[in-house]
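Thread: "does anyone have the structure for this chain?"

Original post by V.I.:
We have the sequence but no experimental structure in hand. Need at least a predicted one for the grant figures.
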Amino acid sequence: MTEGRVFSRKERRLVLFASSAAIFTTPLMATMVNSAIPTIGSDLGVGTHNQAWITVSFLLATVCFLLVWSRIADILGKRKVFIAGLFIVMFGGLLSSLSPNFALLLVFRMIMGIGAAAISCTSVALITEVYPRSQRGTAFGINTAAVYVGSSVGPGLGGVLTDTLGWHSTFYMIIPFCIIALIPILMFKTEFATAKGEPLDRVGPTIFGSATVLLTIGMLNIPQWWSILSIIIGTLLMVVFYRHQKRERYPVLNVEVFASRMYKRSVIAAFLNYASSYAISFFAVLYLQDVNGWSPSKAGMLLLIQPIIQAVFTPLMGRLSDKISGHVLPTVGMAVLCVGLMIILVFPTQVSMLMIVSALIMLGAGYAMFSAPNTNVVMSSVGTKLYSEAAATLSMMRQTGMLLSMGIASACIALTLGNTAHISENIPAFMNAMRAAILIFVGLSIVGTLLSWFRGSSEETVEA
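Reply from O.Q.:
Generated one for you, tokens below.
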């Protein structure tokens, strides 16, 4: 039993370093590949619309497996699942680098997503287990900064690797970063299994995964006639999943956690934060390379601005969240993010450097003020036995927000460019697609800002 145990400074640092190093690889897997997407599409003969699947396949697998990994972590141990996730990511990265065609690349990307789900649902939970409540904001700030450092390294590194070694290298470069995360977690010997011996619900994850797949496929294939049917069936299955979890004695998602208004609105705010902004990097890469004619490395270097801002200021925001009322910093962050989106909304076909830099600074500042403080609020709203579920649910809402963001982007491109066209064939249509998507993102960010402010300031804690 580890409940109530005080961990040494060395033990806390081992967990924080391992968690931060592992979570660093998650955005790295996305942003390095984002820089290579136009090259991959050209090399494998894939149109702009279908290129979105390179990102979506990874996110889809991550979302589908988050809850079941979270439950397995409670039964077998968070540390074991964390380590398993690192090995799965390395295996998927190696296979992705060897992909001979687009279909297999998507399959191998999904394997990477399954591993990333195991890392995502345990990294924050491990930190919460070993750090006292008064120090979690600082730890979450460092952990979240690692995410942004990964984001900052990714575009430039991905661009340089694509230009020099080819797009395959953006996948196998993940392996050494995973090894760095493995070393400290293997040195940390304590295991956390809060539901040891309990059974695993297999029906719930099956329903949830099926619903997620149907919703994603439906969103990405608009305006096909059957896409609406896919979305409707997926939505109905989500309702079935919720009702099943309420009846299940050992659910993969304890829906009672949503009894806390603070918790519920905080995770929804996270969903809206990512839904309104994640696809910006996808659009930015296509815009800078295919519209403005930049090389992958040049585009990647410019896109470093946003994550560098995030990496520098996120730890500070995390520390401040230990002292400032929970809803203030995340709300301001959402509002600043909205301003950044509005700047991008008025981008011309040939944009000035000042305009790009201004937008990236606002987006980076908004993320920095939102992420760590919002995570602190979420994890402080639940008791010890719900740490894994809370972390998994928060990660699921983020990843689902990313999926929705990519779905909106893909749908807008399909409606204007079609499913097979390339941007170079119709730049005005692409610009219309980008502006339509960003207008939707602005609306989502406004809703998120209001929801974040009115989430309340209760310090109640929900127990299992």
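V.I.: this helps a lot. The longest helix spans residues 9-44.
O.Q.: and The two ends are 17 Å apart (CA to CA).
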